[in-house]
Specification:
One of its GO terms (molecular function) is endopeptidase activity. With 262 residues, the chain is an all-alpha fold. The chain is built from ten helices and no strands. 72% of the residues lie in helices and 0% in strands.
């Protein structure tokens, strides 16, 4: 089922394979830099050198792919804007997630964080918010909406986003990466709610960057403890709101048909 993308026409017609190709290209560059730099995921926030090589560098390489792909497709407008706002209740979980991230940072021990480390944390967090939201919840949504209904769009894009973290199993996390994938599916659903509520991808970028900044800069477990519960709630809320939105769409279509016939 095709969706209207907006008043400006994209350079390339949105197709699922284009969105997935851009997603895979991003992953290829990102993980190639990790491999070359010898990543140990459990030590990313350990020092200035680890943050630069394992956080900033791969994200900077991924940024190049994002900019080239979305510009080549001509999808910037529908990638960054969403004209299908959900219920106001969609803002609750993104707000809760932001508060948890802030609390996590506030109570953390930052005594070992140097000014240069703070700089790398800020740059890396901005990049991760921009890159992963544009590639997974931006251009990928544009591509998937060319073929699937919104429930399928949410599920497939969020699943791919969560699977993005599976290779972490080979970079020091081991089997824990499977749990990370499950949790990221839930957190990805929160970012989806942030986009759909606001009508813009920017709040999802900010929330994503804030969350990663909090977890990498702090040694307290509040964010990790809350993440599964936030994620489960988000999946439930997304399903409920999408079902309600679909019913409203059917009702509007039925009402419009009756007006036309009368």
């Amino acid at each position: 089922m095709k969706r209207t993308l907006g008043s400006t026409s994209p350079r390339l017609r949105p197709r699922v394979w284009l969105g997935i190709a851009a997603f895979l290209a991003y992953l290829a560059v990102f993980y190639a830099i990790w491999i070359v730099n010898g990543l140990d995921y459990t030590r990313v926030g350990e020092s200035e050198q680890t943050l630069l090589r394992w956080y900033v560098a791969p994200l900077a390489g991924g940024l190049v792919v994002v900019l080239i792909a979305v510009s080549l497709f001509g999808w910037w407008r529908p990638t960054l804007r969403d004209q299908r706002p959900l219920s106001r209740s969609a803002v609750v979980l993104p707000a809760v997630m932001a508060m948890v991230a802030i609390v996590n940072m506030f109570f953390g021990d930052h005594s070992t964080v140097t000014p240069t480390m703070w700089l790398y944390l800020v740059v890396g967090s901005v990049l991760v918010g921009f890159n992963e939201e544009v590639i997974a919840r931006g251009q990928l949504l544009v591509a998937l909406r060319a073929r699937f209904g919104e429930t399928g769009v949410w599920f497939i894009s969020t699943l791919l986003f969560s699977l993005l973290h599976l290779p972490n199993a080979f970079f020091g996390l081991g089997s824990v990466a499977i749990l990370q994938v499950v949790i990221q599916f839930g957190l990805g659903s929160v970012y989806y709610l942030a986009r759909r509520y606001s009508g813009s991808l920017v709040p999802a970028m900010i929330l994503h960057g804030l969350w990663d900044f909090s977890t990498f800069s702090s040694n307290v477990p509040y964010a990790g403890m809350a993440a599964p519960f936030i994620g489960i709630a988000a999946v439930i809320v997304v399903l409920v709101l999408l079902r309600r939105d679909r019913r409203r769409g059917v009702s509007r279509t039925t009402a419009s048909s009756r007006i036309t016939m009368s």
